Amino acid sequence: MYNIIRLSEQLSEKHIIIHSQCTNAEGILCEMVRALSDELGPEVCEDIASTVLAREKVRSTGIGRNVAVPHTRTASVKQLHCVVATTEKGIEFKALDGKPVSLFFLIISPDFTVGPHLTILSAICLLVGKNADIAAEFSKARSAEELMDLLMAEEEKYMI
C-alpha cells in the first residue's frame, strides 16, 4: 500500500473528456486545456496550451501502455488542475513504446510548488504501472461518472 495523493480527489467530472474526436496530439492537448476555460479564462488557457505544446516538442509525455501525462508548471495558475481524456482509436503521440495513446492525464500546477506536481505524477504512474490495461479499461467508460468510478476503484486497490 502507498500513502499518496488520490487523482480522483483532484479531478472533477467536468474535467473528464470521454471519447474525444481529436485525431492528433495538438488537438487533444488543446481540447484538454479548453476544459479548464470556465475556471481559468480563455487567455490563460491559450498561454497554458502554448506551454504544454512546447513541452511536448522537447520530449513526449507518452509514457507507454497507451497513456500520456502531459504536464506543466506555470505562474498562470494558483492551484493544481487535472483533466482526463480518452479516445477510442488512439492518437500518435511519440510515446516511449511507440504505441498510440488513448488515455491522457493533463496536469497543470503552479510554478511556485513542486511537491503536489510530483505527487500527482507519481499517483498516475503508480496506477499505470500496476495495471497494464488501464487505458483500455478507462476507454470503455461511457460517461465521466463511469470513468471516475473506475478511477476510484483502481485507487482503492493500490492506495491507502
Overview of the molecule:
It is a single chain. The chain has 160 residues and is α/β, with parallel strands linked by helices. It has one domain (7-158): Mannitol-specific EII, Chain A (3-Layer(aba) Sandwich), CATH 3.40.930.10. The protein is 45% helix and 20% strand. Strands 1, 2, 3, 4, 5 and 6 form a six-stranded mixed beta sheet that branches. Helix 2 (25-34) packs antiparallel against helix 4. The model has no long low-confidence stretch (mean pLDDT 92).
What's a quick, concise take on this entry?
With 160 residues, the chain is an alpha/beta fold. It has helices at residues 7-10, 25-34, 37-40, 42-58, 115-130, 134-139, 144-158; strands spanning 16-17, 62-64, 67-68, 71-74, 81-91, 101-110.
Kindly provide the radius of gyration, computed on alpha-carbon positions and rounded to a whole number of angstroms: 14 Å
| Total beta-strand segments | 6
Largest sheet properties: 6 strands, mixed
- What's the pLDDT, averaged over the residues? 92
Per CATH, the architecture is: 3-Layer(aba) Sandwich
What is the total number of structural domains? Answer: 1
The H-level CATH homologous superfamily, spelled out, is Mannitol-specific EII, Chain A
Distance between the termini: 6 Å
Alpha-beta classification = alpha/beta
Tally of DSSP helical segments:
7
What share of the residues lie within helices? 40-55%
Shape estimate: globular
Q: Helix and strand string, N-terminal first?
A: HEHHHEEEEEHHH
Percent of residues in beta strands: 15-25%
CATH topology: Mannitol-specific EII, Chain A
Q: Any low-confidence stretches, pLDDT <50, length ≥5?
A: none
Highest CATH level, the class: Alpha Beta
